[in-house]
Amino acid sequence: MIKLGILDSLWEMIFPTPRICILCKKKQEQIGICPACREKLAAYRQNHCRCSRCGTFGVTEENCPNHRKWPQYLKSNQSLWPYCGEYRKTLLEFKFKGQPWLAEALAKLMAPLVSKGDIIIPVPISAERLKERKFNQSALLAKYLARETGLEYAENVLIKIKNTPRQSTLSYAERQKSLQGALAVKNEQKIIGKDIILVDDICTTGATILTCAQILHEQTKGDIYGITLCSGIQ
Ligand SMILES: [Zn+2]
Ligand SMILES: [Zn+2]
Question: What predicted TM-score, i.e. pTM, was given to this entire model?
């Protein structure tokens, strides 16, 4: 468990963390998801196959189209939830409202997915998008994930140097093309020789994670492991 600092405790007194299930919103004692939602998720995972390489739901690794272009050093992507129903709703709530308590609760649930890697890096957003949204949802998740796992969090390493169209409106090839040239690595001494955990809110076509992994691998020569809140459904 993470010890809270004085500022954190003070913050908690002024803005107490809502003790509700982050999925069904029922009141409960603990932070996170309630036993009923946990059971429902376990049943979903049991009844739906999942690609063991990139985490896409509803498809096996052999039939999955989303990781075909992935190089060997991009080992895997693991995600917590499918992008549907209440899981999608909670992701959108987090993405557009960005409440830190929600990031903390989500990171606690995502932490068991981290089993390899040395350093945590979020998928970046452009300065323009950051100004508009005030926060990067992937960076929030990554920060709390670093706190939960005790791993190093690397800020200002992978950066976005120009704005790109919203990824959800583009095809796989268009996504890759628009991202290449929009990303850059700074402070590369922080990552040389390290295996990287790349954090994003969602993995759908796998193009974002692939493009980020390519540019990071050029510097680290290490392996890359994706951890995302949601994965798409085939
Ligand atoms: Zn619930
Ligand atoms: Zn796959």
Answer: 0.90
